[in-house]
Amino acid sequence: MIQDTSKQCYKDLLDSDVLSHLQREVFEYILDNPGLTDGEISHGLGFDDNNQERPRRFELVDLGWVVSGESRVCSVSGKTCLVWSASEFQVIKKGLECLSMVQVEKVKKLLRLANGFQRNKFSGFLKELEGESGL
Questions:
Q1: What is the spatial distance between Cα 28 and Cα 58, in angstroms, rounded to a whole number?
Q2: Could you give the CA distance from residue 119 to residue 16 in angstroms, rounded to a whole number?
Q3: For a Cys staple, 37 with which of 5, 66, 79, 81, CB 3.0–4.6 Å?
Q4: pLDDT band (50, 70, 90) for residue 100
Q5: How would you class 22 by CB atoms within 10 Å of its CB: exposed for 0-12, middle for 13-18, buried for 19 or more?
Q6: Which CATH number do you get for residue 37?
């Protein structure tokens, strides 16, 4: 049995620059282009065959960074294949990295209010954010 501290240490390593260059390249492509098959990912990355991409995608699935979706016909192979996307956690994490610290604090406040079911404060704060963003 793996200890929780070991799991946390492993997750911390993943959040650092421990992913190989090719893993990171495949992950970034999947993150930016959700719902593609292995063939489409390989083609989009300019690889000659799926064997350059697929092993890295398997590793990313094992790490919980990539998840499978439904099957559909691949535009490259013409075969029915699973599609792949970044996990929800990784999409949220990437989105937060793009926000300024002020925006991050507002998102955290919004999540706290939503989590605490403080509906009046939540809707008021949401209106305030919408006004700032021009929505």
A1: 15
A2: 37
A3: 81
A4: low
A5: middle
A6: 1.10.10.10
